[in-house]
Amino acid sequence: MITSRDNEQIKQLVKLQSSAKRRKEAGLFVIEGLRLCRDAVDCGMVIQALYLSETAAATLSDDPLCAAGRLEVLADHLFDKISDTVSPQGVLCVCEIPEFSVEIKEKGKYLLLEDMSNPQNLGAIARTAEAFAFDGLFLSPGCCDRFSPKALRASMGAFFRLAVMETDLSETARNLIEHHIPVYAAVPSQEAIPVTAADFSKGAALAIGNEGEGLTGQLIQNCSNPMTIPMPGRAESLNAAAAAAILIWEAHRGTVS
Questions:
Q1: CB of 109 within 8 A of CB of 203?
Q2: What tens digit of pLDDT does each residue of 133-183 get?
Q3: Residue 14 within any structural domain of the chain
């Protein structure tokens, strides 16, 4: 049983939880919680190690999850100290970062997310995209890390299944247009096309920008058309995840109608 925070494995865990740079260097990320860990195994994630609190180990000793990777048991007090959640379940695993590629399909549905800074928004958007069968996500290099603990929890496992690529979004937008998929830039402008009037019959790619700054001018110029969500109320803007959910639903509705 590991009892000290000075243990090298524990130091590695803490670094992987807190540092996107460390995750990228190591090619590893951390998942916490029984449901997410089981989901990772079911989705074929490569589990390097499974860490259980002493209490959880006694409860889950016969669980198939325990055979997914090298098993380590932590003293309860130590698990509580390194946990990234308010109410730890005593289950945590270290996984290899998967490699995905996004295939551009005829009449496909895609998201282009530029410089998204809030990991919970990023995870929530991925969860919604998966729910409505989007074919892939393209992320700018300035986006927050999708393998951060907060993003993974908000995604509810979507990042284990969705095809996601980090890429130059302007180039991607041009590529999608060449494949006859319209790329709509989400902007807060009354002069833009209302999402309810957009034609999604040939597929859709939705470009959504940073929570505070929106899309860059360069990416807007490389999209097919600017698009907006009509808002008759007094609010000037929507949360990025809420706006994305509306756009995703309308695109889905337009491609299946």
A1: yes
A2: 999 999 999 999 999 999 999 999 999 999 999 999 999 999 999 999 999
A3: yes
Residue at a domain's end among 69, 96, 123: 96
CATH number assigned to the domain comprising residue 249: 3.40.1280.10
Query: Rounded to whole angstroms, how far apart are CA atoms 17 and 101?
Result: 25
| Residue 148 CA neighbour count, 13 Å, CB half | 18
If asked whether residues 129 and 230 sit together in one domain, one would say: yes
Residue 169's alpha-carbon distances to 61, 72, 229, in angstroms, are: 46, 41, 22
Q: Is the pLDDT at 61 greater than 70, yes or no?
A: yes
Closest CA to 185 of 223, 218, 217: 223
Residues 114 and 30 in one domain: no
Q: Among 121-125, 200-204, 253-257, which stretch is predicted with the lowest mean pLDDT?
A: 253-257
* Residue 256: per-residue pLDDT: 65
In this prediction, residue 163 carries a pLDDT of 95
Residues 235 and 132 in one domain: yes
CA 170/CA 112 separation, integer angstroms: 9
Alpha-carbon distances, residue 168 vs 126, 219, 240 (angstroms) = 19, 10, 20
CB 20 within 8 A of CB 148: yes
Domain that holds residue 80: 8-96
Three-state SS for 33? coil
On whether both 84 and 116 belong to a single domain, the answer is: no
Task: Output the average pLDDT for the chain.
Answer: 93
For residue range 1-23, what is the model confidence (pLDDT) as tens digits? 899 999 999 999 999 999 999 99
Please, where are the H alpha helices in the chain?
8-18, 20-26, 34-42, 54-59, 76-82, 119-131, 149-155, 158-161, 169-178, 217-222, 240-256
